[in-house]
Here is the input.
Amino acid sequence: MSKPPLTVLLAAPRGFCAGVVRAIDIVERALALYGAPVYVRHEIVHNKFVVDDLKAKGAIFIDELDEIPAGDRPVIFSAHGVPKAVPAAASLRRLFQIDATCPLVTKVHMEAQRHHAEGLEIILIGHRHHPEVIGTMGQLPEGAITLIETVDDVAALKVRDAGKLAYVTQTTLSVDDTRDIIVALQQRFPAIRGPLREDICYATTNRQEAVKSIADRIDLLLVVGAPNSSNSKRLVEVGEKNGCARALLVQRASDLNWAELAGLRTIGVTAGASAPEILVNEIVDAFRSTYDVTVENVVLREENVSFKLPRELRDAAP
Here is the structure.
């Protein structure tokens, strides 16, 4: 029997961003320079495939620094950033530490520190318990930053001085939802100061815009990414809010429930900023077993951003 036709729209940009590429390169470079094991505090990026690959190469992922035995093994901090207390604790133990924090997250940290130095109370727009939010709030003394997640939170917000406020945001939020929160903040607190350039990173914005460009053309959107990946979950939400009948987050082709994937004509596929392209190809190939697949690349824009490795890795002998 002939297979039913299926058009797969591959949204681009998708997949790895510059911060994720840098973080993975940091772990691999450290392994090449210093040998295994290299310790990594928390997942270097939110993707099981990537983490498992680095484990196989000699990286050991830990939750806390006290899991590292005494010695001279490197410890790497994840791309999401860490509270200041973490490198301070590492210094007390004289651990060789390497910071893989995405430079765009570091930008938010520096903004928060600058606002605090100017005597401003800081509002952070983000998702509670996300490691990036924990890291940002941990840049300043407790109570210096207030976290809000929704427009409703703005109405309930209590501040010390409405004339001395600033806001920063998590880098991986929904562009549209965050815009609504910022508008609500500005309406309630006209003097509030924001970043000179928005905090939501270029990759998050580009991937969301790419999904919007195909959402009303498809029966189903598949977002390749991890369930703990903020930017991947936001892509699902963006698809649903922009005309896509169904949007699903999947990690691997093996996650696909084929009983629910019958009768499709056109699907869209994208990937969160920490999901490798090999997983996108795996899923497209899986559909070929059931459908006669035609792939159409829908490229919103090209990305050419790159970030340097930390100096201690650049300057080290090969």
